[in-house]
Amino acid sequence: MSEIRIEHAKKVYSGDNVVIPDLSLTVKDGSLFTLLGPSGCGKTTLLRMIAGFNSIEGGSFYFGDTKINDTDPSKRNIGMVFQNYAIFPHMTVRDNVAFGLKQRKVPKDEIKERTDKYLQLMQISQFADRKPDQLSGGQQQRVALARALVINPDVLLMDEPLSNLDAKLRLEMRQVIRDIQHRVGITTVYVTHDQEEAMAISDRIAVMNHGVIQQVGVPRELYHRPRNEFVATFIGKTNMCNAKLVHIDGVATLVLGEVRLPMSQLNSCTDQDVRVSIRPEEFIKSGEGPFEATVLDSVYLGSTTDYFMKTSFSDRIQVTVESTFEENVRPGETVRLDVNVAKINVLSADGQRNLMEGVA
Ligand SMILES: Nc1ncnc2c1ncn2[C@@H]1O[C@H](COP(=O)(O)OP(=O)(O)OP(=O)(O)O)[C@@H](O)[C@H]1O
């Protein structure tokens, strides 16, 4: 059992710099859990606390039922992969992968068998006798992963493992990591500041800001029902606008500029000022649509085109539509827009709470 449980973790650097005030989370056995957040929010700090490289100023860390706060890092049975590979340059690929097994004084035959298995699993058998400087970045990261997994760790910790790779290799390697994690079924904590990478790779994601978890959920949940404005804007792109929620004939209605959108699912909410989050792809160009919008600019991205438009409720919104062979609207033109009301998120005026939470 290698579920990771963290209860009320606290991290303080140099006396009074509280980086993590009070953080709790559970990583389910065999799942890939990502810590996602902007630079400096405390992701690496938390990962190092799990690994035992950082002191813990408060709270409890468990692997299964075992409290590990005071367990030496070398006794936590952890595999680690960092962004800078951290493989030994003077050793061959095979010796790098076998390193942890030799240290643990595993019998020679078994070292060969287990090393071969992971060289094969990571598809690097053909490089076994090469030194790391004869490998590409992606291949080096495969070696690092094989070396981390060959010791049969209870937990795998990965800190921005793809950030040194070029864009194409990053996409390839995130699939490799996902596949291998599934196959080996190892409980994994993955750190990244790249929201797209987090969405592609994770079973569950914790979005962090200033050492505080803003929301934990499956990728789809975070995208469609962000808990607050920070999550709505950090995950994917969105248009944030001010609006009012009022009841008209008993039906909760969103007043967005001059347009009124009935939202009966919010009937139980009081009348109030609100913040509204609408993803760019939830606007639909439609002659019948209630919103009038003036095109300011457009960016062609191949399969989709981003339009920037001025409306009565915002000076600049982004609208993403499927590209057509010929550009169908140009800057200066006026169009009508509809919106997919079911996908709108209505937040409290301070952006701290999603009024739609619990609404299907
Ligand atoms: N050893 C240290 N001593 C003092 N402060 C530190 C130390 N390590 C990190 N910090 C501070 O703690 C905060 C969190 O840092 P951390 O590296 O955990 O963030 P992060 O979310 O992993 O960021 P990044 O994505 O840039 O790596 C930052 O403000 C950082 O300056």
UniProtKB/TrEMBL annotation:
It holds the Pfam family ABC_tran. Coiled coil: none annotated. Keywords: ATP-binding, Cell membrane, Membrane, Nucleotide-binding, Translocase, Transport. One of its GO terms (molecular function) is ATP hydrolysis activity. The keyword Membrane applies. Residues 4-235 form the ABC transporter domain. InterPro entries: AAA+_ATPase (IPR003593), ABC_transporter-like_ATP-bd (IPR003439), ABC_transporter-like_CS (IPR017871), ABC_transpr_MalK/UgpC-like (IPR047641), Mo/tungstate-bd_C_term_dom (IPR008995), NA-bd_OB-fold (IPR012340), P-loop_NTPase (IPR027417), Transp-assoc_OB_typ2 (IPR013611). This is Peptide ABC transporter substrate-binding protein. It comes from Tractidigestivibacter scatoligenes (Olsenella scatoligenes).
